Amino acid sequence: MLEVEINKDCDEVFVGTKVSVPYREGMLVETIIKELGLNEDDIGIIAVNGKHEVTKYALKDGDKVEFFPFTIGG
Known about the structure:
5-stranded mixed sheet, Ubiquitin-like (UB roll), mainly beta, single chain
């Protein structure tokens, strides 16, 4: 099982929610993005187990995946 957290402004429907996604062999981060219907353009940072990763990252059972929006600083 994968734990997925969608943080503020990454998606209007899932904002601030945590969902469990069944793990399947060969899953990539992009698989979760597509299956949850998230807009990849709204995702600024992808973290897997607290480390920055990319959409092609191969997931392992038990991984924690977090999506964060782009931020604007000043």
